């Protein structure tokens, strides 16, 4: 039985499939879902400092959009408790941290075909190799 399901979610098709699976698992097990929507601010050279404000605006917009996407899931499935965070770090690092208190971690897979499917994406790979709880890698249906 799970108490906390952590899911990586950025609104993409593969992360929507992961979110759907996470909510299904939480509903079936009476668990909560914790959504991680990480957005890392890239490091730019000193001569690009003039663009820092613009970049922070873009990240702020993404953080707001992530909150709105999660709010939509809460409206869709009010019986499941869904919490969220939008850390400003690489998604892999954010998910590994969140997984410290998770019973299950769910990530999406892009499913890029037979050859590419032999190699998972960097986030899925990092999560599989650095967390101690079960990990579900989900493809869009």
Automatic annotation (TrEMBL):
It comes from the Bacteria. Coiled coil: none annotated. InterPro entries: Rossmann-like_a/b/a_fold (IPR014729), Universal_stress_UspA (IPR006015), USP_A (IPR051688), UspA (IPR006016). It holds the Pfam family Usp. Residues 2-139 form the UspA domain. Belongs to the universal stress protein A family. This is Universal stress protein UspA. It comes from Spongiactinospora gelatinilytica. The lineage of its organism: Bacteria, Bacillati, Actinomycetota, Actinomycetes, Streptosporangiales.
């Amino acid at each position: 039985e799970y108490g906390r399901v952590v899911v990586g979610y950025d609104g993409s098709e593969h992360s929507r499939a992961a979110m759907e699976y996470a909510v299904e698992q939480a509903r079936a097990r009476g668990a909560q879902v914790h959504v991680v929507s990480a957005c890392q601010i890239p490091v730019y050279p000193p001569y690009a400092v003039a663009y820092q404000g613009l970049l922070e605006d873009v990240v702020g917009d993404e953080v707001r959009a992530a909150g709105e996407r999660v709010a939509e899931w809460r409206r869709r499935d009010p019986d499941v408790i869904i919490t969220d965070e939008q850390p400003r770090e690489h998604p892999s690092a954010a998910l590994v941290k969140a997984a410290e208190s998770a019973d299950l971690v769910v990530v999406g897979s892009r499913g890029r075909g037979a050859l590419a499917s032999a190699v998972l994406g960097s986030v899925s790979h990092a999560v599989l190799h650095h967390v101690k709880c079960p990990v579900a890698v989900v493809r869009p249906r």
